[in-house]
Amino acid sequence: MVGLHMKRSKIIKAWKSEGRVTSVDSDPTSPRPSDFLDQIELSIVTIPDLVVPRIESQNDVLSSYNTNNPFIRYNSIKFLGFLVLGYLLVIQIIGIASVLIYLALISSAKDVLRKKGLKTLTFAIFTVVSTFASCGFVPTNENMMVFSKNSGLLWILIPQVLLGNTLFPSFLRFSIWVLGKKFKKAEANYLLKKTAEVKYLHLLPGMHSSFLVATVLGFIFIGLILFCSMEWNSAALSGLNTYQKLVGALFQSVNARHTGETIVDISTIAPAILVFFVVMMYLPPYTSFLPVKRDPQWQIDCQERKNQRRVGENFILSQLSYLLIFIILICITERKKIKEDPLNFSVLNITLEVISAYGNVGFTTGYSCDRQLKSDPTCVSKWYGFSGKWSDEGKVFLIIVMFFGRLKKFNMNGGQGWKLL
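^ thats the sequence. predicted structure below, dont judge the formating
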């Protein structure tokens, strides 16, 4: 959102450098945008002592609805910036209100907070914002395990997970289309048709947005089927009825991509599901299956960028290569514990922790004293932090992986120098 507002200032600077804008006060006789408000609605920001395009005639105002007019690009980016702000506020406010209403109506959920000394408003705000931002922090020691039977609360949080992450581009485009029906028609039309010119990472073309929805729902369906088929009668879902198990499995599948909230102890579920979670956490949020013919111009641009690639870029590794290196380094730093405590410090658990850090998810298998080969009377089981048992060197590597995961978009094209034949 901040980047969108910065784009507006760049557009004005470009106009000034090209001599296409003048100061409002430099020419008192030049028509103002307000002179034409009774003829056509046009969203023009008039700021004293700043710059706006000079309008020579009414035809210039009418031409602002032409998507090739640079002034409509300025208005469209401004509109998109405020739309993103409204999107963030509306979705989270609805989520917080829904959680508060649910806690007021369902005594069992409210009793959990009362026993833990948590205020209802604090829990609602903290949990919804954390879920929407894909942070996964919940102000309870057991994450969402204590609410495994509160299916209504899980239903409220599931849209927050999707709308704040994997489905954000699709619903942002849908919001533009809806508002364009009644308000800001010119700006909405420009954003929907000139997506590439806006250069906003989260605004995808229409076809791409549709396939993104299909891909996200497809991954959720696969995870739901896999989880239900292997964990339906397991101890992880014991005590839940059929409806609660189904909603709980859906909640786990949705959170496997980026949020990391859980109603079960991750270490108790089947290894096959853990491997599936690893794959889901590795995938970037906007991963989509896009079986359409690419634009020829796009292929030409890619070829030009390929030809202009600097020599140093050929030695940049792919995302997966760096992750393998970090897993190997952590296995080296924790080699003593892997030998003495192989059930807790398994390679699968370490891999899950590393990929979870890379995807900024937060899933962890925790640490169980029951899995120790040599029992330690001073041991304390902690399901919520397996990395807490790592060495300082291993924790440093994991911190690096977290930053690397947040900044992965700057290296998505790495590893192109390698050809696997």
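The chain has 17 helices and two strands.
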